[in-house]
DNA sequence: ATGATTTGTTGATCCAAGTCAACGATATTC
DNA sequence: GAATATCGTTGACTTGGATCAACAAATCAT
């Protein structure tokens, strides 16, 4: 198992030695998902907090009208999990599904809580929580205020890799528009 | 100064003694805002993290089109502040304005960081950050998926006090619709 | 390979909300 | 208490995106 990727990632939040990292790393186990499989589903408490090594996943919930709403896509080197739900042992309302064969590094809620007694891990957790918070707000604001065309151009600029691996109708869903509308937006943009 | 309100509030997150609380409480100072005044503005780093004792505030940002977008209203017994911005000394893009004369309890970013060395305060901070996180996601999801009428009915149910003290056009802005549309929604609902 | 499913495009129509404008009602201010 | 902002309602009109439907293209399964 190549530990470099996660080590590098964590170092972007906190300065730690390789040894400190290895102790933490021992708590993770690899999980492999086939395309289409679920890592957690609505109505249950997720088992793990996970780091994506390979693959792409979509996290969605079902709205009151019974429609799937994609909340987020996760690609390589991102964390995914329902921390609040695991801590409080409260079922999540999100579903996490692999869009490709995936390879994750997973830690249980309990192990994470214990690990958080270690100062640097606690610090990492807090930093991450705050920056997640800010990112969610920013993302939420963006979606609230932009037109479909602006949203698509933004995703084209910010996350071009997504567009190459995720079916368009999922992108449309994520942006809160119909697949037909996205198709037309793309056509309009191409003609510019 | 009546310390009961904040003490009770914090106890809903962590079990602490009155003495422990008083030590923490010493770090807060009262701030009074007149209707219309700003507690922080976009482009600067906010000075304080604040607990609302009295009054109502709106937090908004300016979108790329130059329009005000209300992100949240704050009433009594809620925390308001840009934690990420204070920690990283990075200017916020939010404005916080008093909609009524307000009374806040404020702690500086530095004092908060120091205080976070105390275990219960750190625990409180983490818990709050996680639950904020979950709340923001839920709110963002709601706004994404509901019709104006559903949104208004929800606010009517969840935060009826807001409707009594906040001008309707601010509510409309918060819901992401025009004031005329909200007026018509209200008319329709009244006729049911 | 071939049939079946998933995915993406295009056209026609509809409708909810935006826009513009006028006006009433309500607060604020001096 | 008159003058002035602010706030809320209503009407007429426009429009962007949803909806419905048909089909084309790509992918998958056996």
- Which pair of chains forms the biggest interface, and how many residues does each contribute? A-B, 32 and 31 residues
Number of strands of chain A: 8
Overall outline of chain A = globular
Portion in strands of chain A: 15-25%
Rg of chain A over CA atoms, rounded to whole Å, is 18 Å
Instruction: Please give the largest β-sheet of chain A.
Output: 4 strands, antiparallel
Q: Give me the strand/helix succession of chain A.
A: HHEEEEEEHEEHHHHHH
SS class of chain A: alpha+beta
Mean pLDDT of chain A, as a whole number?
A: 93
Oligomer class: homodimer
Biggest sheet strand order of chain A reads 1-8-3-6
Class of the domain at 4-113 in chain A in CATH? Mainly Beta
Query: Uncertain runs of chain A with pLDDT below 50, 5 residues or more?
Result: none
Helicity range of the residues of chain A? 40-55%
Task: State the fourth-level CATH superfamily of the domain at 4-113 in chain A.
Answer: Jelly Rolls
Second rung of CATH, namely the architecture of the domain at 4-113 in chain A: Sandwich
CATH fold assignment of the domain at 4-113 in chain A: Jelly Rolls
How far the N terminus sits from the C terminus of chain A, by CA atoms, comes to 47 Å
Total helix count of chain A? 9
């Amino acid at each position: 198992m190549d530990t470099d990727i996660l080590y590098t990632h964590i170092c972007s939040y906190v300065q730690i030695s390789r040894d400190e990292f290895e102790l933490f790393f021992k708590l993770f186990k690899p999980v492999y998902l086939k395309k289409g499989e679920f890592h957690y589903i609505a109505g249950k408490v997720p088992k793990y907090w996970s780091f994506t090594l390979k693959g792409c996943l979509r996290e969605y919930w079902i709205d009151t009208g019974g429609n799937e709403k994609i909340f987020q896509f996760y690609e390589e080197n991102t964390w995914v999990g329902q921390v609040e739900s695991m801590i409080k042992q409260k079922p999540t309302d999100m579903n996490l599904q692999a869009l490709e064969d995936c390879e994750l590094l997973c830690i249980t809620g309990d192990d994470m809580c214990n690990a958080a007694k270690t100062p640097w891990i606690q610090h990492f957790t807090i930093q991450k929580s705050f920056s997640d918070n800010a990112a969610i707000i920013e993302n939420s604001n963006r979606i609230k205020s932009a037109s479909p065309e602006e949203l698509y151009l933004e995703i084209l600029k910010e996350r071009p890799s997504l567009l190459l691996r995720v079916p368009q109708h999922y992108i449309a869903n994520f942006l809160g528009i119909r697949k037909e509308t996205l198709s037309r937006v793309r056509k309009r943009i191409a003609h510019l």
